[in-house]
Amino acid sequence: MSDALEVFDRRESEVRGYVRAFPVVFDRAVGSTLVGEDGREYLDFFAGAGVLNYGHNNPLFTRALVEYLERDGIIHGLDMATSAKKAFIEAFERLVLEPRGLDHKLQFTGPTGANAVEAALKVARQATGRTNVIAFTNAFHGLSIGALAATGNSHYRGAAGITLDNITRLPYDGYLGADVDTLDLLEKMLDDPGSGVDLPSAVIVEAVQGEGGINVASAAWLQRLRAITAERGILLILDEIQAGVGRTGAFFAFEESGIVPDIVTVSKSISGSGLPMSLVLLRPEVDVWKPGAHTGTFRGNNLAFVSARAALENYWADTALVDGVAAKSALLRGELEQIAAENPELGFVVRGRGLMYGLACDADRGLAARISKQAFTRGLVIETSGAHDEVLKFLPALTISEDELLKGLAIVRESLAAALAE
């Protein structure tokens, strides 16, 4: 442990995680570059676990925030009406909801993704009068108790200290192999009175699973899931916390399938700047809340509303960002497939969409972590995911340049060679 990190080891809880993988005191950041206290630069393929889709300290957002602060704009507002909140709602309506034909209401929850999931599960149960929820294998929905119950990973579930109830777990798309449609089991269990599965209030799903290992649900699978739930009066919740806000190409990851969810959870990159903010999108008939039935001290983060509006107006008024992501996605996929082809003995599997990709290695489940460690010594921050941390996870900023993307991929190649030589 370096002297610079001594105070963290001495005073911070053992629960700290990322600092163990990336043991540097970071001081500054811009775009896709992090800078340590010692002045060393690191290329960022992590983007704050998907929070920084537009890069670090985007000057478009910084300028808007500074101007707002300098005029003494409201910072904390609970759920009171403010000019910053009004401007964000109007921008979201104009640039996100209306172009997609969505009539959803907006609920501003506490500032984390888990807060949004908790609210979504609660309102689904209130709207239907039923308690059970269907969730899927390898899902990650947050670590507060209700969200944790819907999360699959045993490492996180084991920290709960209590039983996690009112969830039925079923296999995600591809879990039983490419030739098995896992929704056959869902439909059979819902329609069989002897299955022991109570009719759920909702099904919660990620169109692309992030922490679960970059697993992508096909458009056909999501379309069938929507049909199954709609036919039975079950609400469909799409968790877009990591895969949304342009991460997989379109604003929402579910857009490719053409479905319309009943409830959508949004967080991470919605503020643009990295400031905490979360939303729940509700179809009007699902919005059965009584006033004050779900509150939170920090559901009115007006600084986040300011930068969120700036992000929408600067990146979603035209197709430039989406077109750029498509081009860089093709580059990233091509390079990863080439790495897999060059190392056939490792059985690499490439999966993902947009700028959310994984390089999975079941043959050596420790390899991804070793590559990540080697990459960090070479100036690249990249994390792992999956139930066994067997997936090297590519999550660069959507605004990253092609040169930076290629530079990072070259480091991954070097790090793979070094990890195999260990």
Automatic annotation (TrEMBL):
Protein name: Diaminobutyrate--2-oxoglutarate transaminase
Record pathway: Amine and polyamine biosynthesis; ectoine biosynthesis; L-ectoine from L-aspartate 4-semialdehyde: step 1/3
Gene3D superfamilies: Aspartate Aminotransferase, domain 1, Type I PLP-dependent aspartate aminotransferase-like (Major domain)
Keyword DNA damage: no
Keyword Transferase included in the entry's annotation: yes
Pfam families from the UniProt entry: Aminotran_3 (PF00202)
Organismal lineage: Bacteria, Bacillati, Actinomycetota, Actinomycetes, Micrococcales
Taxonomic superkingdom: Bacteria
